[in-house]
Amino acid sequence: MAFAELVDGRLVVQTQWHEKDIVKQIPGAAWDPRAKIWTLPLSWGSCVVMRGVFGDTVQIGPKLNEWAWRERRERIAPANAVRECTELLDDGSPEAEVLKSWR
Fold this sequence. Notes:
It is a single chain. This protein has 103 residues and is an alpha+beta fold. It has one domain. 44% of the residues lie in helices and 20% in strands. The protein is built from 4 helices and 5 strands; from the N terminus they run ββαββαβαα. The radius of gyration is 18 Å and the shape is elongated.
């Protein structure tokens, strides 16, 4: 079973030898021969793809879990909410003025 954790600002994945072809499917995956671990870019996309290729066979460490929930709450969920808006909020902000000019 693979184990993923946030270590020094990197997404680190420890795998068994037979899982190397699975982790190689994740864009940006790199093998660190000294530490004998895989590293991935720390991004929401890397986490989503990692979960997609490993499914339930990857265990998520507490630091990565905390980072992912914070990322989802503070960045992903608000972006998805804006994506689903059907009407422009005219609050007088410079951003709203630019968006109005595109209509």
